[in-house]
Write a structure and sequence with these properties.
157 residues; alpha/beta
Length: 157
């Protein structure tokens, strides 16, 4: 199992949260880094073209800073999601204390982890990431969370 750390400036105004590492993220050397593959290209492009925010000004993390077997959420080793969720909540608190303004939750697990504290929560129909993207919600620490689909969704049609 590969463990990584959040990436980007500690005083960032925007915190982007993904699900976990994929192949390209876990292969990044010397340490895993979030959103460096094709999904990262889409994220960088959206940040710049839609918000004029360059990636170096964004702090990036995941619900679980690990790569599960087969890139399947359900395949995380026991405790990895709980550990990652706890570390994410610590990161959200640091982000808020440093004057962070907005959390960008990229995908269902990120949204549920940031807003409910439980990335495994299954929302009812009409309240999934597809229906709630573009809306703001309070995080578990109070910082606003913007729901967004994960950039990898553009790769999978």
């Amino acid at each position: 199992m590969i463990w990584g750390q959040p990436d980007g400036p500690l005083d960032a105004k925007l915190l982007a949260v993904g699900r976990d590492y994929g192949y390209y993220e876990s292969a990044h050397k010397p340490e895993p880094r979030g959103f460096v593959g094709a999904a990262g290209w889409y994220l960088d492009r959206a940040l710049w073209e839609e918000a004029q925010v360059p990636r170096p000004l964004v702090r990036v993390t995941n619900v679980a800073n690990t790569r599960p077997a087969g890139d399947k959420w359900e395949a995380h080793e026991p405790g990895a999601v709980a550990r990652g969720t706890s570390e994410l909540h610590d990161e959200l608190t640091r982000f808020q204390q440093a004057g962070g303004v907005l959390v960008l939750a990229l995908g269902e697990q990120a949204l549920q982890a940031c807003t409910r504290g439980d990335p495994t929560f299954k929302p009812k129909k009409g309240e999934t990431i597809t229906e709630t993207r573009g809306y703001l919600f309070p995080s578990v620490v109070g910082v606003p969370v913007l729901a967004a689909v994960h950039p990898a969704s553009f790769l999978h049609g």
